[in-house]
Amino acid sequence: MNERQRFISKYLTVYGYRTIFVFIMRPLRYIPRYTVSDYRLWEGDWELIDGLPCSMSPSPVKRHQRLGAIILRHISNSIEANTLKCGDCEVVYELDWIIDDNTVVRPDIAVICDKSGDFITSPPILIVEILSPATALKDRQVKFDIYQEQKVKYYIIADPKALTYNTYILTGGQYIETQSSSFSIHDGCTISLDVAKALADLGD
User: Fold this and answer.
1) Where are the beta strands (DSSP E) in 121-204?
2) Phi and psi, residue 164, nearest 5°
3) CATH code, 62-202
4) Phi/psi at 166 (nearest 5 deg)?
């Protein structure tokens, strides 16, 4: 990536997607935009948001990865327990979601029921993002807005450091916080995910 891309990426990562417009409103029209075709040629870990490259933080620390593994296992076990009803639904880890030609995100964990293709191409039913200091703002604001706009039914944000979490359900096109640990994936397919227990299993 060139210096201009790194500059944009720094602000996207540290300050969040919307804040970049405050810093460089006027020059923004001169900044190149990229597509999925460009994205596929880049080295390293990137997300693409409205044509702007966003650098992924360094690989998650052990605590982040442990929580991800615990939640992934809980969801996978719940789906397997309801195999006949859940059909083709599955849980995937850090798989690119190609939203359109200008936006590609990589959720930590996603529940999908469309196995066509090598990547996610339609909105997941449920997404879990695990916070880290470098991604917290993006997960709470940028991805919150993207997932809401794309009609992801459930969005869970888990903080392995603070041992807290927020669960949202899409209601009337808006995310409403809920305390539910039961998630209706589709008719007949309901999975359970106790995030509080997953955080407790993580330990100190």
Assistant:
1) 126-130, 154-159, 164-171, 174-178, 182-186, 189-192
2) -125, 165
3) 3.90.1570.10
4) -130, 135
> Phi-psi bin for 163: left (phi > 0), alpha (psi -120 to 50), beta?
left
Spatial distance between the Cα atoms of 164 and 154, rounded to a whole number of angstroms: 17
Domain definitions of the chain by residue range: 3-55, 62-202
Burial of 29 (0-12, 13-18, 19+ CB in 10 A): exposed
pTM of the predicted model as reported, rounded to 2 decimal places: 0.85
- The DSSP code for 204 is -
- Going residue by residue through the chain, which has 204 residues, state the pLDDT in tens, using 9 for 90 and above: 555 555 455 445 444 444 444 444 445 566 788 999 999 999 888 999 988 888 886 777 889 999 999 999 999 999 999 888 898 899 999 999 999 999 999 999 999 998 778 999 999 999 999 998 888 889 999 999 999 999 999 999 999 999 999 999 999 999 999 999 999 998 889 999 999 999 999 876
> Long-range contacts: 6-11, Cβ < 8 Å, 24+?
6/55, 8/52, 8/53, 9/46, 9/53, 9/54, 9/55, 10/55
